[in-house]
Write a structure and sequence with these properties.
The chain contains two helices and no strands. It has 101 residues and is mainly alpha-helical. The protein is elongated and about 115 Å long.
């Protein structure tokens, strides 16, 4: 009869533990639901408009800077190509002079 008593006591402890876990889970779910129901702070329409305006201005500034960098990069590439072509021409003209001379 001692073994059955221990089995019943063990089973009761397990049920109690499971009930505690279920209760804890339910509390957490309630807390999460209450968190979702809290009012969200809002800004006035004037503040929203000011923020939107600022964001658009920043985006326009970034686009302008990006275009400047791109144009500078293209100018550097063109200049580099010109230098390369002039070096190639001077080398080929030197070769043709040496062959002809």
């Amino acid at each position: 009869e001692g073994a059955f008593s221990r089995l019943h006591a063990d089973h009761a402890r397990r049920l109690s533990k499971l009930a505690g876990l279920a209760e804890q889970k339910e509390k957490e779910e309630i807390e999460q639901a209450e968190e979702l129901l809290r009012p969200v702070p809002t800004a006035s329409q004037a503040k929203i408009d000011a923020s939107v305006c600022r964001l658009y201005e920043e985006a326009a500034y970034r686009r302008a800077k990006q275009m400047e960098r791109q144009q500078e990069s293209e100018e550097q590439l063109v200049e580099s190509q010109r230098e390369h072509q002039s070096m190639f021409r001077s080398r080929s003209s030197c070769g043709s002079r040496a062959e002809g001379g």
